[in-house]
């Protein structure tokens, strides 16, 4: 049996505070602090506690070359090796842990990005419950606790030195962008027309052309993408679209077609939608949810272990989100995007490996309701009259 250290691991010092009961009995309340070390690995969902002996051994075992267990036991305490293996930080050949670790290696992740992506995902988070806790914490007065916010704009010189620019001319694009308002009031009944669904998906995610550049097959789409690789995939939760059964789908960018993954009953679709967007109820009535999932292997194939590669996949989703807003607005539809999502629950529903196809955010589009129940930021009154 051979072992090696897992591919990406970060060791983080932690300080935990507890009430010192002995001091409390002496009527001098004080918080007692406890220090510990925590390991976060890119192939494990949960963090694990480690001690200094285990950290020392991790620093002496190769993450690349396999080493016979007998050799490692000769060099290091057996109990420490067994503990690290049980925690998944030392990986044995031909095991499930090794397979999970291999998915990170073969996707060519940069280490810090891999750990951050894995451990910043949500599971079963209820945003409304968290917002209530925050309100209790700040006693309904966030500014009193958080202090004044930073200025809306940065000033790098005296006002008299500024060079005034001409105003933005009226244009179809300017009018379109004025109507681009994040929707929190979707019509709960009106379905989406198939032409609307097809138009928005095609303009945002569809391939305009295919080409080969220096031997690499690339796509031309309506938004920029690092290296022309376009790693973002669109997965859909369809709830109310004429002619399309409620269910989970994948949009094929080249074929401009929906690939059915699983049909859903209406109640199950509603429950999944609520879970996907972390119980942000104002997004619940959107007839279509779009899951932006980055196919990391597509991007990292070229930008291997690159410090900027993960950032490029995030930017890719940002470009697509804005394009979706504009494509939906042009057709008289409303749109939203949120990063406050339960990535782990979405991955489970669509059968995604977070280290090869990871969820970055969720958007949606549909008809806006006739009445405004939730606040929408529309200071230009382009959607809602003053």
From TrEMBL:
- Superkingdom, natural source: Bacteria
Mind telling me which Pfam families this protein's record contains?
Nitroreductase
- Annotated ranges, domain Nitroreductase: 178-366
GO function term, MF aspect, one: oxidoreductase activity
Stored NCBIfam families: antibiot_sagB, SagB_rel_DH_2
Give the protein name, as stated in the record.
Answer: Nitroreductase
Q: Which organism is it from?
A: Dokdonella koreensis DS-123
Taxonomic path = Bacteria, Pseudomonadati, Pseudomonadota, Gammaproteobacteria, Lysobacterales
């Amino acid at each position: 049996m051979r072992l090696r250290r897992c591919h990406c691991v970060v060791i983080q010092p932690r300080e935990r505070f507890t009430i010192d009961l002995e001091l409390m009995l002496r009527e001098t309340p004080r918080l007692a602090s406890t220090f510990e070390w925590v390991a976060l690995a890119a192939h494990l969902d949960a963090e694990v506690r480690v001690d200094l002996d285990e950290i020392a051994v991790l620093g002496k075992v190769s993450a690349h070359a396999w080493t016979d267990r007998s050799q490692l036991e000769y060099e290091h305490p057996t109990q420490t090796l067994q503990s690290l293996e049980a925690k998944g930080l030392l990986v044995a050949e031909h095991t499930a842990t090794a397979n999970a670790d291999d998915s990170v290696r073969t996707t060519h992740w940069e280490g810090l990005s891999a750990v951050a992506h894995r451990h910043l995902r949500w599971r079963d988070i209820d945003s409304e419950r968290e917002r209530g806790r925050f309100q209790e914490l700040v006693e309904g007065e966030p500014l009193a606790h958080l202090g004044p916010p930073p200025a809306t704009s940065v000033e790098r010189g005296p006002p008299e030195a500024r060079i005034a620019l001409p105003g933005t001319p009226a244009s179809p694009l300017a009018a379109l962008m004025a109507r681009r308002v994040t929707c929190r009031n979707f019509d709960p009944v009106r379905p989406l027309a198939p032409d609307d669904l097809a138009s928005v998906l095609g303009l945002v995610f569809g391939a305009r052309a295919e080409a080969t550049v220096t031997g690499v097959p690339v796509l031309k789409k309506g938004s920029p993408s690092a290296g022309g690789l376009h790693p973002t995939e669109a997965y859909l939760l369809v709830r109310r679209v004429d002619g399309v059964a409620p269910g989970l789908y994948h949009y094929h960018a080249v074929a401009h077609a929906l690939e059915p993954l699983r049909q859903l009953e209406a109640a199950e679709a509603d429950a999944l939608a609520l879970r996907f967007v972390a119980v942000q109820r104002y997004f619940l009535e959107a007839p279509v949810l779009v899951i932006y999932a980055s196919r990391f292997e597509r991007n990292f194939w070229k930008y291997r272990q690159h410090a900027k590669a993960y950032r490029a996949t995030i930017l890719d989703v940002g470009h697509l989100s804005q394009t979706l807003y504009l494509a939906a607005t042009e057709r008289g539809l409303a749109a939203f995007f949120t990063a406050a999502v339960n990535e782990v629950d979405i991955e489970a529903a669509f059968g995604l490996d977070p280290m090869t196809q990871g969820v970055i955010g969720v958007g949606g589009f549909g008809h806006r309701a006739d009445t405004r129940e939730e606040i929408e930021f529309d200071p230009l009154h382009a959607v809602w009259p003053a």
